[in-house]
Amino acid sequence: MNSMYGRNILNLTELSKEEILSIIKLAIEIKAKPEAYRGILAGKIIAMIFEKNSTRTRVSFEAGIIQLGGQAIILDSKNTQMGRGEPIKDTANVMSSYVDAIMIRTFSDQMVTELAEASSIPVINGLTDDHHPCQILADFQTIYEQKGQLEGIKLAYIGDGNNMAHSFLIGGSLVGMDITIATPKGYEPKAEIVTLAKENAKVSGSKIEILTDPEQAAKNADVLVTDVWASMGDESEQKERAEIFKSFQVNNRLTAQAKKDYLFLHCLPAHRGEEVTTDIIDGIHSAIYQEAANRLHAQKALMVKVMAKL
Ligand code: CP
Ligand code: NVA
């Protein structure tokens, strides 16, 4: 049986290096031959709960499950009993008797952990305050397609120490990528996630660095990544952050530090002229649309792994 069948994907710590690579390999195979996987999830249903906005995650999961022969039920938590305070445990038990998997996008990681613990079906994190594992799988697929490897790649993430930074730290340290994060003081990734990444890095042989100098971080990078300065939930700090993060913009001065053939990634949505200049995000080094397209393929691979016995 497929060893990932029935597993939760909450923050990538539940996966080994080999498992991450096997998802990416399958994603590349599904992308090349989608017809070979049509019907593999026939009769399977994924419920998707959204407490935060989404374009890519929602559409790519729904299109993906349809292409695999299954169906999605989209729930806006405000319109469910969860929005009126029904206990997570009850929601988890009830949903487990109707559908085959849950994808959730919400604020609290604690809530998602409780949901997963009380569910007998896989729970997939479609973004929380602290993690964005599905995005990382698509990003790793893109890096693999562009650079032919993950191990030994130097990835520099410049900006807020947010969910994306955390997921790069965990995923990158597992697969053997060198991860450098540069943030303004006070916006560093969470200490426990940095510690975990450093532990992983001892095994994979990668290097983890947390800096406050973006130029130093970008030095010799194969991949430059940024994300919005104010994530969903931080909107009220937008103005204040725009001032604090000014020198962390990915622009020509910063990219000059990276390798000549550097790749630029951004999970989108982006604010051109804030975290990245238009010439960089729309320039020849940018793979943002390939990256977004890979959400579909990476998540199809992930759903096959956790929802199909094979
Ligand atoms: N990158 C990403 O998760 O996009 P959405 O917020 O549109 O789902
Ligand atoms: N860090 C961003 C990612 C959006 C896909 C946020 O959480 O809003």
TrEMBL record:
What GO cellular component term, any one, is given? cytoplasm
Catalysed conversion reaction = carbamoyl phosphate + L-ornithine = L-citrulline + phosphate + H(+)
Q: Which residues form the signal peptide?
A: none
According to UniProt, this protein's pathway is: Amino-acid biosynthesis; L-arginine biosynthesis; L-arginine from L-ornithine and carbamoyl phosphate: step 1/3
One biological-process term from Gene Ontology?
citrulline biosynthetic process
Among the Pfam families in the record, one is OTCace_N
Q: Where does carbamoyl phosphate bind?
A: 54-57, 81, 105, 132-135, 267-268, 295
Where is each Aspartate/ornithine carbamoyltransferase Asp/Orn-binding domain found?
A: 151-304
For this protein, the record's SUPFAM superfamilies field holds:
Aspartate/ornithine carbamoyltransferase
What UniProt keywords apply to this chain's record, in alphabetical order? Cytoplasm, Transferase
Family the entry assigns: Belongs to the aspartate/ornithine carbamoyltransferase superfamily. OTCase family.
The UniProt entry, under HAMAP family, shows: OTCase (MF_01109)
Tell me what this protein is called: Ornithine carbamoyltransferase
* The species this protein was found in: Enterococcus caccae ATCC BAA-1240
